[in-house]
Structures are given as structure tokens and as C-alpha cells.
Write a structure and sequence with these properties.
alpha+beta, Alpha-Beta Plaits, 5-stranded mixed sheet, 5 helices, 5 strands, 43% helix, 26% strand, globular, binds flavin mononucleotide
């Protein structure tokens, strides 16, 4: 029997952000993270989705096992957040996220999805469910794709 040489995994984690309270500095800091993450993830063939809810970051990383492991080591050591905790880490059959790095937070357009997922109380208790994170990230991705008017690419 042939052994599998590579395996696709996803990793879900959450953390507490150490970002500035004022909106312009915070936006710049998120811009910096986005630029670094996009570049590294493209190189490592990682797809990901970052949700920012209040002062929490929640991210899904997908890719080859070793690449995801290495990315997570970098991310976990980053001083821009703390209390980084893995929620779920497992093999997956296929990728579900389209870009190397997309981030979403509460806006009038995404509010309903955030309210439905009700992640904040789970994050505050320190026990977010993998299935809730995954469902919210998928809903936010669908929302951002339809906003760009490219639904027809994914039917
Ligand atoms: C909330 C958050 C999410 C991040 N997501 C990623 C990511 O998906 N991929 C990545 O390579 N770096 C990500 N980073 C940045 C890494 O922590 C790190 O700064 C970057 O990979 C550069 O690593 P280096 O300093 O070892 O070159 C993230 C940082 C934060 C705070």
C-alpha cells in the first residue's frame, strides 16, 4: 500500500489581542499583520481566515501539516497577542478557505453572522467550540465573496 507523503490539516486557535485602543493605530497594526501573513502564507501554501471579535483573535489555518505547524510556531510567539490556545487541530479532506489571509470583524454587514455565532461569551469563558468558529468563518467568507460580486465563480 502506498503511504501518504503529505497530509492536509486545519488548526483553529484563539488569543487575546495586544493592539492599540485607538482606531487608526489599530487599523495600521492589523494592516501590518495582514501584509506579513499574506506573504508568508502564500509562500507556505497556507489558506487562512482571521476573525476579530472584541479583543479576541480567532483564526483558521489550513495547509500541509508541517507548514501549518511552522506558521503556528511563529504566530504563537508573536507579542501582538497573548494566551494563544489551540481549539482544534486535525486532518481535513479538502481546503475550505480561498485566500492566504482574509480578516473580518464586526461591521453592519457582518453583525448578523457574529450575533448568530455568539462567540464572545465562549471566548470570555475560554471555551469556544471549533464548530462555532468554523461556521462563523465560512459564513463571513461567503459574505465577503458575495460583497465582491464573484458568487458565480463558486457555484
Ligand atoms: C492575530 C495574528 C495572526 C497572524 N496570522 C499569521 C498567519 O496566518 N501567517 C503568518 O505567517 N503569520 C501570521 N501572523 C504574524 C506572525 O505572528 C509573524 O509575525 C510573521 O509570520 C513574521 O514572522 P517572522 O518574524 O518570524 O518573520 C499573525 C500574527 C497575529 C498577531
Amino acid at each position: 500500500m502506498r503511504t501518504k507523503r503529505t497530509s492536509l490539516v486545519h488548526l483553529l486557535y484563539f488569543s487575546r489581542l495586544n493592539l492599540a485602543a485607538d482606531a487608526p493605530t489599530r487599523a495600521r497594526q492589523i494592516g501590518d499583520i495582514t501584509r506579513q501573513a499574506q506573504k508568508k502564507n502564500e509562500f507556505a501554501v497556507i489558506t487562512s481566515f482571521l476573525i476579530i471579535e472584541g479583543n479576541f483573535a480567532v483564526q483558521v489555518l489550513e495547509g500541509e501539516r508541517q507548514s501549518v505547524h511552522e506558521a503556528f510556531q511563529r504566530i504563537a510567539g508573536d507579542q501582538r497577542h497573548r494566551d494563544v490556545q489551540i481549539v482544534e487541530w486535525r486532518e481535513i479532506a479538502k481546503r475550505e478557505f480561498f485566500t492566504s489571509f482574509t480578516t473580518a470583524s464586526r461591521t453592519p454587514a457582518t453583525e448578523a453572522h457574529f450575533n448568530k455565532a455568539a462567540l464572545l461569551p465562549m471566548l470570555q469563558r475560554g471555551t469556544p467550540k471549533g464548530s462555532s468558529i468554523h461556521a462563523l468563518a465560512m459564513a463571513l467568507q461567503a459574505e465577503s465573496v458575495s460583497k465582491q460580486g464573484i458568487d458565480h465563480l463558486f457555484v
